Fold this sequence. Notes:
By secondary structure, the chain is α+β, with helices and mostly antiparallel strands. It has 2 helices and 2 strands. Strands 1-2 form a two-stranded antiparallel sheet. α1 runs antiparallel to α2.
Amino acid sequence: MRWLLVLAEFVLVPVFAVAAVWCWRNGIHTGWFKPSGDAPGFDATRYSGPWLSGAAVLVVVAGLVLIDTVAKVVRARGQ
């Protein structure tokens, strides 16, 4: 039973990492504005706080799950 939990946690780490990358990519939007009159055209980048915060939380959770998984494996091999 313990190894099944370790395997499940080991699978969850990449899932959390992929979700973090997805959130990060959704949190950054780049737009281009055409020149208008005397104003030159320019690129603007907009950062969305909730998406970027979600990505940070998912990275932290993935790290904690990974640390817990490694600790369980090391503890089980030591017994």
